[in-house]
Amino acid sequence: MAKKTYSFNILYLIGMALVIIGFLMPVLKFGPFSGNGFSVMHHSKTLGKLGAFLIIAGGIAGLLTCFVQQLSAFSLIAVIASIAGGVLVIMSVGNADIVKFLVKFAGTGFYLIIAGWIVSLLGIFVIKK
Predict the structure, then answer these.
(1) What is the pLDDT of residue 32?
(2) Helix or strand holding residue 10 (H, E)
(3) Beta bridge partners of residue 35, listed in sequence order
(4) Residues 8 and 86 sit within 8 Å (Cβ to Cβ)
(5) Model confidence, pTM
(6) What φ, ψ does residue 106 adopt, rounded to 5°?
(7) Most buried residue among 10, 79, 94, 95 by CB atoms closer than 10 A?
(8) What SS3 state is found at 28?
(9) What's 27's DSSP letter?
């Protein structure tokens, strides 16, 4: 029986997996936004819900692009969608001094999502097949 091989970028795969794992971990520790990405999605307004959905949808789509050869051209689109979702979630918080807010109230999942975005972008642009 022939061995099936995959031609995917392992760095990109790890980055997208970190985004999904980070979404499932505590993202923010601030009032109604405490908890994982799904609780952020549940307790926020329309902009925050759309952003949280884009984060997880971009992560899942990124994983799918690794294993489905016909979708490999959409790798960058999946990362951009996920990052755009993160921007929407941060905008929905509505705090003027957002950097101090994030340093004070960011959870482990927030940092994993950021690391996942960086690793997946490195996998796209630095590592060429």
Answers:
(1) 59
(2) helix 10-24
(3) 28
(4) no
(5) 0.82
(6) -75, 140
(7) 79
(8) strand
(9) -
Answer yes or no: are the C-beta atoms of 101 and 93 closer than 8 Å.
Answer: yes
Q: Which residue has the tokens 């795969």?
A: 13
Is it the case that residue 26 has pLDDT exceeding 70? yes
Q: One-letter amino acid identity for 47?
A: L
pLDDT digits (tens, 9 = 90+) for 46-73: 888 888 899 999 999 999 888 887 777 7
Residue recorded with tokens 């990109």: 12
> Are the C-beta atoms of residues 51 and 92 closer than 8 Å to each other?
yes
How crowded is the C-beta side of 53, counted as CA atoms within 13 Å? 9
**Ramachandran assignment for 113, one of left (phi > 0), alpha (psi -120 to 50 degrees), beta (any other):** alpha
CB burial of 11-27 (b: ≥16 within 10 Å; e: otherwise) equals bbbbbbbbbbebbebbb
Share of the chain above pLDDT 70, in %: 82
Q: Write down the mean pLDDT value for the chain.
A: 81
Phi, psi of 76 (to 5 degrees): -65, -35
